[in-house]
Write a structure and sequence with these properties.
3 domains, single chain, 53 strands
Length: about 425
């Protein structure tokens, strides 16, 4: 049967769309509705159970198509026109065969649209939009996006390859295999991604602050990930695996959440590093911060390692939220007649009328005991100026109350050592 308008119910049997315009204002429950080898526009306010686009058929969609727990099949040689938008509502199975030209826009309005394929890569050459509350997922080989994507809902199960210039994620990407492929890409939006891979030949840049939840940013060999001027937040165990190029100079990496996190250190130099985790963070290796290290919530446990603030790094600690643990944090600054200079924010405030030259300040947090058996607080400094004669320098010693080690604050004394002994001042 060949149709042009349906205002009722089209039931069992095989039906064909052979006219230029097919309007469905009713219900198509047929398990076999096919388009023939021509150009067609499908319109109307009704619903479909199945639609099969056969080889040689070029189809445009003039309105929202309601697919209620059913299927769209686009056979090899079939085409979705580039002037059209396929709008899916309800739970829809979208089967795209090898070589299909999907040139139009896909708009997932509600429900779950599942892309089904076997042994080949479905390609969306038109833009993809996933509305709030809806889901796009994949049940086979990686789906490839070659035009810009806006996700306001969920990109769920399966594998996806981002080959477009701009990927805007304002909600959630929970895919277990999400890849930015060769080419230049902008990742932006207010949402989060569970994990993603920057592949060989990919130059992926942040276009806004963004989040990774629970898993890893994996920068493969030959891949580039650039924070630009934005913040990448790693939530609840998120981490960075860098075997390529991770550009951080003008951006910030934030570790946040409510479970203990390890700071990623292998092949990484941080521009800005921000600790915002009440459960704390731990350093598994040495690392350098070139801009600002901020401990806004929780702490950073050095765990026996060194953290360098070079060449112009600076430490900011909120009250009760500090760098702590064995190991040390170190910085250096040119000091010529310094007047109350707190080198890199470490808490050693130096004043002198002399030229100290490049002065290295190393802060550690051991609980030292002097020759009289008196225990100290959990902060001390090792200060090494280039010129160390006749300085007549004064030192202001800053500390956090969490470091008092049960000492009476009003009874604190400053101790120094110039010959491997401890002498009270």
């Amino acid at each position: 049967m060949k149709l042009s308008t349906n205002n009722g119910t089209l039931g069992n049997g095989t039906s064909w769309v052979a006219c230029p315009l097919f309007t469905n204002n009713g219900s198509v429950t047929s398990s076999s509705l096919n388009t023939d080898t021509a150009a067609h526009t499908i319109a109307g306010t009704g619903s479909f159970s199945y639609l099969t686009i056969l080889p040689g058929s070029v189809v445009s969609f003039a309105s929202n198509l309601k697919f209620n727990g059913t299927s769209i099949v686009i056979n090899t040689g079939g085409t979705i026109a580039n002037s059209t938008t396929l709008k899916t509502t309800g739970n829809t199975s979208l089967t795209i065969y090898s070589g299909v030209n999907f040139n139009g826009t896909l708009n997932v309005i509600s429900g779950i649209t599942a892309v089904v394929n076997t042994g080949y890569t479905p390609i969306f050459k038109g833009t993809v939009v996933i509305d709030s509350g809806s889901t796009l997922q994949n049940n086979g080989q990686p789906v490839r996006f070659e035009a810009n994507v806006t996700n306001n809902g969920t990109i769920g199960n399966g594998s996806f390859d981002v080959a477009c210039f701009r990927f805007t994620n304002n909600s959630n990407v929970t895919s277990s295999n999400f890849n930015f492929t060769s080419g230049v890409h902008i990742l932006q939006g207010t949402g989060s991604i569970n994990a993603f891979n920057v592949l060989l030949g990919s130059i992926t840049k942040l276009g806004s602050d963004h989040k990774i939840n629970n898993s890893a940013l994996n920068i493969n060999s030959g891949g580039i990930f650039d924070l630009s001027t934005y913040k990448l937040s790693l939530n609840n165990g998120g981490s960075i695996i860098n075997n390529g190029s991770f550009i951080t100079a003008n951006g910030t990496v934030e570790y946040s959440g409510n479970i203990l996190q390890q700071i990623s250190t292998t092949n990484i130099t941080y521009g800005g590093l921000r600790i915002n985790n009440a459960a704390g963070t731990s350093l598994p290796g040495t690392v350098t911060v070139t801009d600002t290290l901020t401990v806004a919530a929780g702490w950073l446990n050095l765990n026996g390692h060194a953290l360098s603030l070079y060449p112009d790094g600076y430490l900011i600690e909120a009250g009760g939220n500090t760098v702590r643990g064995n190991g040390f944090i170190i910085a250096a600054k040119e000091l010529d007649a310094p007047n109350g200079v707190n080198v890199a924010g470490l808490g050693a405030v130096i004043t002198s009328s002399s030229n100290l030259g490049i002065t290295e300040v190393k802060r550690s947090h051991q609980n030292f005991t002097n020759l009289n058996g008196d225990t100290g607080i959990y902060r001390n400094f090792d200060i090494n100026p280039k010129f160390n004669s006749g300085l007549n320098a004064t030192l202001g010693f800053k500390y956090d109350e969490s470091e008092l080690n049960q000492r009476v604050e009003g009874a604190l004394k400053l101790y120094r050592s110039t010959n491997s002994e401890v002498t009270g001042l």
